[in-house]
Amino acid sequence: MNTAERDHNRAHAERLVPALREREVVGVALSWVDNSGITRVKAVPLAKLPTAAAWGVGASPVFDAFLADDSIAACRHAGGPVGDLRLHPDLNRVTVLAEQPGWAWAPADRYQQDGEVHPQDQRSLASRAVRALAESGLTAKVAFEVEWALGTSGDSFCPTALGPAYGYTRLVEESAYLRDLLRALDCQGVTVEQIHPEYAAGQFEVSIAAEDPVGAADTSVLVRQTIRALSARYGTRASFSPKVLADGVGNGAHVHLSLRSGNQNLFTNGTRVHGLTAAAEAFAAGILDRLPALLAIGAPSVASYLRLIPSHWAGAFQAWGLENRETALRLVAGSTGNEQHAANLEIKAFDGSANPYLAIAGLLFAGLAGVAGHARLPEPVSVDPASLADDDRARRGIARLPDKLTVAADAFESDDVLTGAFGAELAATIVDLRRAEAARLAEASPEQIADELRWIY
């Protein structure tokens, strides 16, 4: 970041301050998401926003080595007490928070003191992946589904709503809460596609409209923190954990992704299987090939592997299919006549413990590797893969995805494309953290794991 950029950022922030003050904003929260999927924050008084925009806000790089319980892992490239970073808010995303009166929010990029991007900054990595996609003549639209379980206050989980799965009864039980959530998101400029009760008791899902990949990750952070704030106002607690109860179905954070060339959605009107274009097939194949490694960033919690089990719509097999909710990749075709808008690839194996910026970066870099290698998809699967005999799955190349965090970490470490794209420091830190988190909970029962992580995510 040079002097001209600093001056531009200061001037931009100065233009924002009067309007924010008119809306009674007194503080601006600057957030980033760490490698364990926890949203961290520093805040400044509104009057200091121009200074923060120009010079950043100090933050230790030690957060790169934080585990889910806030302990600090001994990592090869992170975790020491020395050094300082600067948080620079993205002023284009400054949002007045509807459920935190007096507050605005902005996602932050982390820079070193010399003005260079921090090599472990996850949001900047996602931006770099978007630029790499653009260099290939492609763009993407991305949307996150946000699932959460709403419980009464307290450390244990007691659902606030007991109505049937997807049932109208549950909408009645939490009618005012969901109404206020829709109002808050609308006030914050978030476009909601749909909202509904999910399968587990007290569980809900909100689907957000697709946008540019980094913007989608930003929005997922904003939506989750809005849900947290609203839940607190209602005297309840929201859990985004992959496994709220050991015997429950868990929360996913499915990613919907469409690939585009100009205005053309490449996931439809093509000549390949199910109407895919050659580029979309290669992109999807690149993701499918690297799914075991991608789980180290998309399912980075020990609790993730309590959720990622067959026949639970979690996508536990390395397979794809048209509208198949049991394959890790689901091709969503869209209604006839609306394919250009609706066709996309859903990544079902990811969950709410993931850093959304790392998830975006991993998917884009994996897809680009598929495009570069002209990768082809295997035969689509039209049944629950668990219903197939072992020899049939083996013949069709349908593998079980990793069932342990350490296995996913090993796959990520051995993947030269992903580790090369992430950079040596960040890639090594991710591996170190996954192994440390697995070791931390190695002796814990499923019930203990669910209890430990329930309110962290």
Layout of secondary structure:
Layout: H1 3-22, E1 27-33, E2 39-45, H2 49-55, E3 57-59, E4 85-89, E5 95-96, E6 103-112, H3 122-135, E7 139-152, H4 168-173, H5 175-187, E8 192-197, E9 203-208, H6 213-233, E10 236-239, E11 255-261, E12 264-265, H7 278-289, H8 291-298, H9 304-307, E13 317-322, E14 327-332, H10 339-342, E15 344-347, H11 356-372, H12 390-396, E16 399-400, H13 405-413, H14 416-422, H15 424-440, H16 446-453
Parallel strand pairs: 1-6, 13-14
Antiparallel strand pairs: 1-2, 3-4, 4-6, 5-6, 7-9, 7-10, 7-11, 8-9, 11-12, 11-15, 13-16, 14-15
Helix pairs in contact: 1-2, 3-11, 5-6, 7-11, 8-13, 11-14, 13-15, 14-15
Short key terms for the protein model shown above:
457 residues, 2 domains, ten-stranded mixed β-sheet, six-stranded mixed β-sheet, 16 strands, Creatine Kinase, Chain A, domain 2, Ubiquitin-like (UB roll), alpha+beta, 16 helices
Molecular structure report:
- It contains 16 helices and 16 strands.
- Helix content is 38%, strand content 20%.
- The chain is globular and about 65 Å long.
- The mean pLDDT is 97.
- α8 crosses α13 (405-413).
- β8 and β9 form a beta hairpin.
- Strands 7, 8, 9, 10, 11, 12, 13, 14, 15 and 16 form a ten-stranded mixed β-sheet that branches. Strands 1, 2, 3, 4, 5 and 6 form a six-stranded mixed β-sheet that branches.
- The protein is an alpha+beta fold.
- It has two domains: 3-118, Roll (Ubiquitin-like (UB roll)), CATH 3.10.20; 128-453, Creatine Kinase, Chain A, domain 2, CATH 3.30.590.10.
- It has helices spanning 3-22, 49-55, 122-135, 168-173, 175-187, 213-233, 278-289, 291-298, 304-307, 339-342, 356-372, 390-396, 405-413, 416-422, 424-440, 446-453, and strands spanning 27-33, 39-45, 57-59, 85-89, 95-96, 103-112, 139-152, 192-197, 203-208, 236-239, 255-261, 264-265, 317-322, 327-332, 344-347, 399-400.
